[in-house]
Amino acid sequence: MAGVGDSERAYENTVTTMTTTMKSVLTKILIQKAALLTLGVLSGGALTGCHVDMWKQNKAKPYQESDFFADGLTNRPIVAHTVARGQLRLDDAYYTGMTRTDPTAVGGVKLVDTFPFAIDRNGLKRGQERYNIYCSPCHGATGNGQGMIALRGFALRRQPGNYHTDRLRKMPVGHFFDVITNGYGTMYSYASRITPDDRWKIVAYIRALQLSQNANVADARPQDKPASQPKNEQARNDREPR
After folding, report:
1. For residue range 58-101, what is the model confidence (pLDDT) as tens digits?
2. 166 to each of 17, 121, 162, 213, 216, how far by Cα in Å?
3. Cα–Cα distance between 53 and 121 in angstroms, integer?
4. What single string gives the DSSP state of each residue in 146-204?
């Protein structure tokens, strides 16, 4: 009988211990949940307050009417003669293709006829690449004005320029730079798409195209000329305009 009583008491002690442990665990879980809930409420309130403050802050929206400025506009014009950082343009020849130092020129400006920096082989290759991307769709791969845009109907409205006409062969390089920068006729400006450096390199490649379609033996370097040529060929070259 004593053994049975000891077993029952051991069982009861075990149950009591387990119950106490479970209560302790549950209490800890409830405390943690309460703490997280409190933190969430406080954080949410702080965030909500911050959002409301930013949402309701005093500010002017673009194109909103203003009762502060005399003209009633929120957007303000750029102050006269100010220059944005990184946009100083002192070299007229480089940035416009013109010089403003010739008092005899019409309007006080004159198209430049020389490149503002040396054009090497890499520069010419870069010009060819940019030309093929931006110019050849209208002006054609050889500059004859027969690009795919022209062939598919654009020429019916206005024929793209043919670089191999006498007028454009004699045009100063500054003319082509100015056209790329500001547009011409139905051609829009490419200033936002092509940097000044690349514009000059495109112009150099246009000059190369013009030479490729209007050259003769006399234009070759001495080391590239043939040792001799037939008299009729020499006579033809002498008659051709340069």
Report:
1. 788 888 898 888 889 888 888 888 888 888 888 999 999 999 87
2. 108, 26, 10, 12, 16
3. 60
4. --HHIIIIIHHH-PPP-TTSHHHHSS-HHHHHHHHHH-BTTBPP-TTTS-HHHHHHHHH
What's the CA gap between 192 and 51, in Å, rounded?
38
Eight-state DSSP code of residue 144: S
How far apart CA 216 and CA 239 sit, in angstroms, is 11
Say whether pLDDT at 25 is over 80.
Answer: no
Distance between CA atoms of residues 131 and 162, nearest Å? 14
Length of the chain as a residue count: 242
Helix residue ranges per DSSP H, 70-120:
92-96
- pTM metric for this prediction: 0.61
- Tokens 């106490």 sit on residue: 20
Which amino acid, residue 58? N
229 pLDDT exceeds 70?
Answer: no
Inter-axis angle of helices 121-134 and 196-212, nearest 10: 90
Instruction: Please provide the distance, in angstroms rounded to a whole number, between the alpha carbons at the two ends of the chain.
Output: 133
